[in-house]
Specification:
With 289 residues, the chain is of the alpha/beta class. It contains 12 helices and 9 strands. It is 48% helix and 18% strand. The structure holds ligand C2E and magnesium ion (3 copies).
Length: 289
């Protein structure tokens, strides 16, 4: 590695390491304080059909750091997992998402399911299912309005325990999605054992699916696999018309990415749902049913 060549470069490398360790140490303390002072929020990214109609939203966590501004989740989720803060943080995420759903409902918006990213520690913790059950009741939200995104690594880490937990979640009506599918180096046998509903094709395969034949074939294979197993496919990170055209021609079900919508604060999502003709007077859902 370039960074390792020569004593001068080593010094730079060592300094970077030290900076990182210091920052992580500081952030751990800051995370704790921020949980108390509610500095976490959610943005929502739409999941759409090829024609553009919005059929779901993914909640993504944001941290407004008191000094450093917006810190992206890739920089704090793993830190929160290493310290014990992930459980408290995750619970806050669920409260934020469910209270938002309740507010949208009150405003007369026809709700679409919201998916939430769940870390391994959270999914496998004893308190997770009871917590979620209570939270759904508290906000009056049906389980079918919630989807959980879980990565392959977590699903295969303890498959028997996952079968147990996912079955309970399914009983609550909650859907299960495999996030970043194809990057987990895992066997496929978990797909037949676990009650899964959705495969999300990892962005790394989408990026060049319209130009690199290996990526094209991987996407095609995942879509066919999902179809044969009767799972829904979502392509994540769709940025161009050409990627969309390729994926659509192979029968991908749903799309997410900057080409359609960036993650947005709740207030703007409301406008989006409006724009796409999904705003209905309260109770309209019930008419005729
Ligand atoms: P993810 O669940 O795979 O989410 C997709 C990430 O890709 C998001 O990054 C999203 O903003 C980004 N993205 C969406 N469309 C595009 C696109 O077209 N191009 C590009 N370049 N990027 C796109 P974000 O919000 O920074 O989140 C990163 C990861 O952090 C997530 O990956 C998820 O694993 C984790 N995460 C986010 N929120 C939470 C949370 O509340 N709890 C947990 N446990 N993890 C979370
Ligand atoms: Mg996700
Ligand atoms: Mg993903
Ligand atoms: Mg990802």
């Amino acid at each position: 590695q370039a960074k390792m060549q020569g004593p001068g470069n080593y010094r730079i490398f060592a300094t970077e390491m030290a900076d990182r360790i210091n920052r992580n140490f500081r952030y751990e303390q800051d995370l704790k304080n921020s949980l108390e002072t509610e500095l976490f929020s959610l943005v929502y990214q739409a999941k759409v059909k090829a024609g553009g109609s919005i059929v779901g939203l993914e909640a993504l966590c944001r941290w407004q750091h008191p000094d450093d501004g917006m810190v992206p989740p890739d920089e704090f989720i793993s830190l929160a997992e290493e310290s014990n803060l992930i459980l408290a943080l995750s619970e806050q995420v669920f409260h934020l998402a469910l209270s938002q759903l309740a507010r949208w409902r009150e405003a007369g918006i026809r709700l679409v399911p919201v998916s939430i990213n769940v870390s391994g520690r959270q999914l496998l913790s004893e308190s997770f299912v009871p917590f979620l059950h209570e939270a759904l009741l508290k906000y009056g939200i049906e389980g079918r309005l919630l989807e959980l995104e879980i990565t392959e690594g977590v699903l295969v880490s303890d498959i028997d325990r996952c079968i147990e937990v996912l079955s309970k979640l399914k009983a609550l009506g909650v859907a299960i999605s495999v996030d970043d599918f194809g990057t987990g180096y895992s066997s496929l046998s978990y797909l037949k054992r676990l009650p899964i509903d959705v495969l999300k094709i990892d962005r790394s395969f989408i990026e060049e699916c319209d130009s690199v034949s290996e990526d094209a074939k991987i996407c095609e294979t995942i879509i066919n696999l999902a179809r044969n197993l009767e799972l829904t496919t979502v392509a994540e990170g769709v940025e161009t018309q050409s990627q969309l055209a390729f994926l659509q021609s192979h029968g991908c079900d749903l799309y997410q990415g900057y080409y359609f919508h960036r993650p947005l604060p709740a207030a703007q999502v409301k406008g989006l749902l409006d724009e796409h003709g999904q705003l209905q007077p309260q109770g309209a859902d019930e008419i005729g049913s």
